């Protein structure tokens, strides 16, 4: 049973990873529909929060049907990191998550994200200040280390647990690897089986099939799995993994009608949350993922991404449903 503080997530929870420009409320809505047990906001700049920057503050939005929810923050300055805690807690998330894993240069150069893996003392100090100020459990998402020669994740997790962190999610790559190569879960499993570690350990990286989820669950004995990129345009990964873990059987892929329904909901919620114009523009990055593998789909996608008329876009989605009603990726050559 995975518990973060008093939050009971069940026997083996599936977590939606926080992804910048992806895991906003519209995207989270379709993932929740398909079985995500715990989700996170996009990561939020603590500098932006303490300056009350509109974009950062908007990311604090949590809706009742999304819960349980974690708000993820990042930063490298004590004043901003500690000063943002009250704002986060006022949004009433189930937990506050700290990003010590983002490998992007723009984050690392601010001594934030995975940059803190090179300065564990500072990471611990920042985290301890947040734990003391937070009214909700504090968790951390991080990586194995900075590079191949400095995989210090065992020390990191032990020290974070000692100062009150309630759970750690570990991406099985170093910062230098970015998202290249294969994620190495060996150290994640070693940490989970370290008798000193009593908090939940969630594994992250390369989980893109139900079979791999089951294999990694059994091989590395983690408390749950965090899924990121595999859910983009394919929120059904959560229900497929759950079904496979429970029954050992694979579910059929989503039908065209299910894909259109999820895409339509994502689109409508995007307009509701951001405003019509922004919702239409930001949805454009998702169409290709929802209908990946569909034959001769490029003209349809071009029509979707060139329109600024919501009714026209909804009409095109309806046409996809009727045109491809008998198409199944399961049967595709």
Defining traits:
TIM Barrel, 2 domains, single chain, alpha/beta
Average pLDDT metric: 95
Annotation, overall tally of beta strands: 11
Structural class assignment = alpha/beta
Instruction: Specify the number of helices.
Output: 16
Percent of residues in helices comes to 40-55%
Strand content: 5-15%
How many domains is the backbone divided into? 2
Shape: globular
Q: How do the strands line up in the largest sheet?
A: 3-4-6-7-8-9-10-11
Sheet with the most strands? 8 strands, parallel, barrel
Q: What Rg do the Cα atoms give?
A: 20 Å
**Unreliable sequence segments:** none
Q: Order of SSEs, N→C?
A: EEEHEEHHEHHEHHEHEHEHEHHHHHH
First and last CA, distance: 42 Å
State the name of the first-level CATH class of the largest domain. Answer: Alpha Beta
Annotated CATH architecture of the largest domain: Alpha-Beta Barrel
CATH superfamily assignment of the largest domain?
Aldolase class I
Q: What is the fold-level CATH name, i.e. the topology of the largest domain?
A: TIM Barrel
Set down the secondary structure blueprint.
Blueprint: E1 3-4, E2 7-8, E3 14-16, H1 25-33, E4 38-40, E5 44-45, H2 46-50, H3 54-58, E6 69-74, H4 78-83, H5 85-90, E7 95-100, H6 105-108, H7 120-133, E8 138-143, H8 153-162, E9 167-171, H9 186-192, E10 201-204, H10 210-220, E11 224-227, H11 237-247, H12 256-274, H13 276-283, H14 287-290, H15 298-306, H16 310-323
Parallel strand pairs: 3-4, 3-11, 4-6, 5-6, 6-7, 7-8, 8-9, 9-10, 10-11
Antiparallel strand pairs: 1-2
């Amino acid at each position: 049973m995975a518990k973060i503080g008093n939050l009971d997530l069940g026997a083996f929870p599936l977590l939606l990873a926080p992804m910048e420009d992806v895991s906003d409320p519209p995207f989270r809505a379709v993932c929740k529909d398909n079985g995500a047990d715990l989700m996170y906001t996009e990561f939020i700049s603590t500098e932006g929060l303490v300056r009350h920057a509109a974009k950062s503050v908007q990311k604090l939005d949590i809706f009742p049907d999304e819960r349980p929810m974690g708000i993820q923050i990042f930063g490298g300055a004590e004043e901003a990191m500690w000063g943002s805690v009250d704002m986060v807690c006022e949004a009433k998330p189930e937990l506050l998550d700290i990003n010590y894993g983002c490998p992007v240069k723009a984050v690392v150069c601010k001594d934030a994200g995975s940059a803190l893996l090179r300065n564990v003392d500072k990471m611990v100090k920042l985290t301890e200040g947040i734990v003391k100020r937070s009214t909700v459990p504090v968790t951390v998402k991080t990586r194995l280390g900075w590079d191949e020669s400095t995989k210090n994740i065992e020390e990191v997790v032990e020290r974070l647990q000692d100062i009150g962190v309630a759970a750690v999610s570990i991406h099985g790559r170093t910062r230098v690897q970015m998202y290249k190569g294969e994620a190495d879960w060996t150290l994640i499993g070693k940490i989970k089986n370290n008798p000193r570690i009593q908090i939940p350990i969630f594994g992250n990286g390369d989980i893109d099939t139900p079979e791999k989820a089951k294999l990694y669950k059994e091989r590395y004995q983690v408390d749950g799995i965090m899924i990121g990129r595999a859910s983009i345009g394919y929120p059904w990964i959560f229900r497929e993994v759950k079904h496979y873990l429970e029954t050992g059987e694979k579910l059929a892929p989503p039908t065209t009608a299910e894909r259109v329904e999820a895409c339509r909901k994502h689109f409508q919620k995007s307009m509701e949350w951001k405003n019509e114009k922004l919702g239409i523009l930001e949805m454009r990055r998702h169409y290709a993922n929802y209908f990946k593998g569909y034959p001769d789909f490029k003209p349809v996608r071009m029509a979707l991404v060139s329109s600024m008329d919501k009714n026209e876009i909804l009409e095109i989605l309806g046409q996809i449903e009727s045109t491809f009603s008998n198409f199944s990726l399961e049967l595709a050559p």
